Predict the structure.
Amino acid sequence: DIVLTQTPLSLSVTPGQPASISCRSTQSLLHSDGETHLYWYLQRPGQPPQLLIYEVSSRFSGVPERFSGSGSGTDFTLTISRVEAEDAGTYYCMQGLHLTFGQGTKVEI
Amino acid sequence: EVQLLQSGPEIKEPGASVTISCKVSGYNFTDFYVHWVKQAPGKGLEWMGLVDPTDGESDYAERFQGRITISADTSTDTAYMQLSGLRSDDTAVYYCTVALSGWGQGTLVTVSS
């Protein structure tokens, strides 16, 4: 089974500063369809997760440009260029076939 | 707009079964698999399984095999997740999700005697 490992597990960031979260997979997430099925979500307390990034680097509709995703194969990164207060919550990476999730990274602002 | 409306909170005794519904709207129900995800209190997200509404075929995470049944009713655009043999560690919020972007509001299941 594919295991996703996120680092760090918690992060405290000052508003306006950048932040990045790493997600490493035990297997390549490049699918035979040519796509890499790695996704990033933000979950705020008491809410369902919301999709930020799909297929490594594509921002979902309505997601601010300060969020970006990068990586390939087994190593991926979510970057927030300038953190805002509303970005607080827990971030999860996810691989898209059987929806395996990373452990989550709690971001405090 | 894709919307998923889940059934309300449940309180069950150990050993009982629970069935949660997820009614979808805003898209063609048969276009996407419906997945179910578990989130125990203070914990992360765990995939439980999926159903293909087109033909009802399902696939389950190994650790839930034998206790879980996921189904879909195309006449009502509703997916269901049944979990049997409930234990205290099944206390969690359960989400349905489609197309990786649409999520239900979550259903809290509490298992307690």
Residues 66 and 81 of chain A are 5 Å apart (CA to CA).
